[in-house]
Write a structure and sequence with these properties.
Distance between the termini: 32 Å
Structural class: alpha+beta
Number of domains: 2
Radius of gyration: 21 Å
CATH class of the largest domain: Mainly Beta
């Protein structure tokens, strides 16, 4: 993975050699040796996490008119409808929409909508709507995550132009962010349990409303989130990820293996792919950035999985500020096992009777492609939930700075853990009239938290299992 910070001249030299990765690493390290680290906060500022801020850095208080209530600990108790080990039922099933945003009343609410949301209304206003409900600040994490976050606040640092993180483990690394890279790292390292075994059903929807469905099993060890682990014990790996395609037949058996590094200057993401036709597991340096995602019909890039993942080095990052915005939230109804995929998949966009939107405070972060690098999205605007650090929406612009693709992530709080869990991610392509949804499992088994051994993700073990 090429690091923009070494400059165009060195980039050109590196790409001409078979050993370009070694040259890039050496040059990047020489630059980083003199580059200052992003500052950690003082103990006095970190003390706000026990006063005016929540333990992960959100504002505890309500907004000015009370439409966003104060945070009171989040949702940490399972409702009566929940059976341990079963489906996450809706604790707010009795809620009714406060109002519905439509093309007819859009001007009344547009100040709290993203440019991307407004663009969807402009294109699909005859069928698109947003049901807005009472704001419920359900975001919550286990106590040990709060303790780790408090420690990270005064020890975590970014170096290498924002690509190398140190002094952090388990908790949110930058609960009081100062630079644009930091909220993105908070999203990438937000607590999601020790690991997960889940089904990710992905549907690429055509202009006629037909869908090409890909069924994927994902197994993940969130190494960074291991209770009690220290930064030194991470061995420079934040998570281990394995994705196995089971349908359609033309893709079945394809495996992607990723070891996501913490210091990407020291070592870039390790990635491998297994092709059942070749029956070999090979290194896959193209798993990242704007290379097309598996089974997505060209509707998403690799770095749009989990809303955003991977290296940030092709962009400059800036915190624009915080804003009250209508965001997908508490999406239990959309996640219901009573809802079928055909109920969700409609022409032009998903069935907008199912999502729940609420007014929440979000961090707004702007990303622009750096000179000397490339990405199909020249500009991206990220809207990040203050209570969970989950990216909830992204506006993606093309090379002409025209709105191209709009992302939304619908999530629930897994109240028996607790932690936030995405249940549907969408990418709406306004130029082609198509859209993609992923991370659905409504017709599969419920996601299961699982503590994998690191050896499970060893390439030799993956190759052995794949060839059986």
């Amino acid at each position: 993975m090429m690091k923009a910070l070494i400059g165009q001249k060195h980039l050109a030299i590196a790409t001409k050699t078979n050993g370009h990765m070694h040259l890039l690493a050496a040059l990047a390290l020489s630059v980083c040796a003199t580059a200052p680290a992003f500052a950690k906060v003082s103990a006095d500022e970190a003390a706000k996490l026990k006063a005016t801020l929540t333990p992960v850095g959100a504002e505890r208080g309500a907004n000015k008119d009370g439409s966003i209530p104060k945070w009171e600990g989040g949702l940490t108790k399972a409702p009566a409808c929940f059976k341990p080990g079963g489906w996450y039922c809706d604790p707010f099933s009795a809620d009714k929409p406060k109002f519905t945003i439509s093309k007819a009343n859009l001007d009344q609410y547009k100040a709290n909508l993203t440019d991307g949301q407004r663009a969807i209304f402009a294109k699909y206003g005859d069928t698109y709507k947003m049901n807005v409900y009472q704001t419920r600040r359900t975001g919550a994490f286990p106590g040990f995550v709060y303790e780790a976050t408090a420690k990270n606040a005064v020890t975590a640092e970014l170096g290498g132009g924002g690509e190398a993180i140190s002094g952090a483990a388990v908790g949110i690394p930058f609960p009081i962010p100062k630079t644009g890279n930091e909220p993105i790292w908070n999203h990438k390292l937000r607590y999601r349990g020790s690991g997960i075994d889940r089904w990710n059903v992905q549907a690429a929807v055509t202009t006629s409303g037909d869908a090409n469905v890909t069924k994927i099993r994902e197994q993940v060890k969130f190494n960074y989130d291991t209770k009690g682990i220290t930064p030194e014990q991470l061995n420079n790996v934040g998570l281990y990820f394995m994705q196995t395609v089971t349908a359609p037949p033309r893709l079945a058996g394809t495996i992607t293996l990723v070891h996501e590094t913490m210091d990407q200057i020291k070592e870039a993401r390790r990635a491998w792919q297994y092709n059942p036709g070749q029956r070999r597991l090979r290194r896959a340096p193209n798993v990242g950035y704007d290379n097309p995602g598996t089974g997505a019909d060209g509707l998403r890039t690799n770095d749009q999985t989990d809303t955003f993942n991977g290296a940030t080095d092709r962009y400059t990052w800036k915190i624009v500020g915080k804003k009250d915005m209508y965001m997908p939230y508490n999406s239990y109804a959309l996640h219901s096992d009573k809802v079928k995929y055909k109920d969700i998949i409609k022409r032009s966009h998903i069935n907008q009777d199912l999502p729940r939107y609420e007014l929440h405070r979000v961090w707004v972060v702007e990303a622009n492609v750096k000179a000397g690098t490339t990405h199909i999205y020249k500009k991206r605007m990220f809207y990040i939930d203050e209570d969970t650090w989950q990216i909830l929406s992204v506006d993606n612009y093309d090379s002409r700075l025209t709105m191209w693709r709009v992302q939304e992530t619908h999530f629930i709080t897994a109240y028996d853990k607790p932690f936030p869990a995405p249940v549907l991610e969408s990418v709406t392509d306004l130029q082609s009239g198509r859209y993609l949804i992923q991370a659905m499992n409504n017709e599969e088994t419920e996601n299961v938290e699982k503590d994998y051994d690191v050896a499970f993700f060893d390439p030799s073990n993956v190759a052995k299992q794949a060839s059986k």
